[in-house]
Design goal:
110 residues, 7-stranded antiparallel beta sheet, mainly beta, 1 helix, 5% helix
């Protein structure tokens, strides 16, 4: 039997996905899993609270916690009140998020 290498699947969100349309807090329920891509099905805003967009590493990926200084020169909230338009996909590594409006599909990876 041939060995199946899942490394591409793990990195590119082919391990599952969820549809989120409400304002509840969403966390990746897979052990050691993260959301590796988020596709916007409608114009969408993340909640401006800390749980708005929670990165695996605050220094590397857009977040709502105000500590994304490696990618945001002024160290401000990268996604606070930002509208992500329908059809856009962002890539990164997030452990969870909370929408204030809109609909998304979030893809699971490791």
């Amino acid at each position: 039997m041939a060995y199946k290498d899942n490394s591409v699947n793990y990195g590119f969100g082919q391990m599952g996905s969820i549809h989120a349309a409400g304002t509840e807090t969403i966390t990746c329920g897979v052990a050691d899993g993260v959301f590796v891509a988020i596709t916007f099905l409608e114009d969408t805003k993340f909640d401006s609270a800390v749980a708005g967009l929670v990165p695996q590493s605050s220094e590397l990926f857009p977040s709502s916690d105000g500590t994304s200084n490696d990618i945001d020169a002024d160290g401000g909230d990268v996604v606070d009140s930002e509208v992500f338009p329908k059809g856009v996909t962002i890539y990164g590594r997030w452990t969870g998020f909370k929408l204030s409006e809109g609909r998304v599909i979030a893809y699971v990876g490791y």
